[in-house]
Write a structure and sequence with these properties.
- The protein is of the alpha/beta class.
- The protein folds into two domains: 159 residues, 3-Layer(aba) Sandwich (Alpha/beta knot); 72 residues, Trp Operon Repressor, Chain A (Orthogonal Bundle), CATH 1.10.1270.
- Helix content is 37%, strand content 15%.
- Strands 2-1-6-5-7 form a five-stranded parallel β-sheet, with helices on both faces.
- β5, α4 and β6 form a beta-alpha-beta unit.
- α4 crosses α5 and α7 packs across α9.
Amino acid sequence: MKFIILTLFPEMFESFFNSSILKRAIGTNKIEVEIINFRDYTKDKYHRVDTPPIGGGAGLILKCQPIVDALNAMSTKKTHKIILSPGGEKYTQSKAIELAKKYDEILILCGHYEGYDDRIYKYFDEEISIGDFILTGGEPASMCIIDSISRLLDGVISKDSIVEESFSNSLLEYPQFTEPYNFNGDYVPDILYSGNHEAINKWRKKESFILTKNKRPDLYSKYEFSKSDLKLIKEIDSNTTPKWELSAIEKGKKFIKNKD
């Protein structure tokens, strides 16, 4: 996967691409990155890329010429061109999966100031927003998109890390724990020590339902429950602990006698 970034501030990406997983992905040729300062393409004698809006108004607007010329120089027919804008489609995990599967080369334009000359939009394939809030520029937003796509590519991270994650199945991920068993009076659930993986998976699914319903009811309402899911929901709603769960919890207690 190749990422092409059109920006006025290339230096903002230095630490982003020189750390952790993305650095390894670049080093192993899983991803390729090209960062272009579109100011280099301006034909303005003062090297400007922005101007006050025609008709008056606050701030400065990015001009067509430098952006379109940079776009034409850096993209080909296979390049999927994304413009970041508040009016774009709201970015989600499903969109990240779609982009990761569908394209080999993605170009992202990072905006600045008060926005773009409206005639710029038609040169792009897709308009994306990462949320209903305002940033000083598109660079942080582009980093979010690049990171979310990169980690889905083969070989960038372990496949096991992707299988069960928040949003991957429209639910929040279940709670996870580390040693010690007792931390300041907060205990790891006994069922996790049971060794009964079927019971643990069912418990985790129930916890995922509870978390999602409480924290993200919008996601919960969209989730398509299977027959086995509905059975777990019935257990949650009854506020009782079923036999399979009690049995696993009891078994787990045997392995934590000396942990407390």
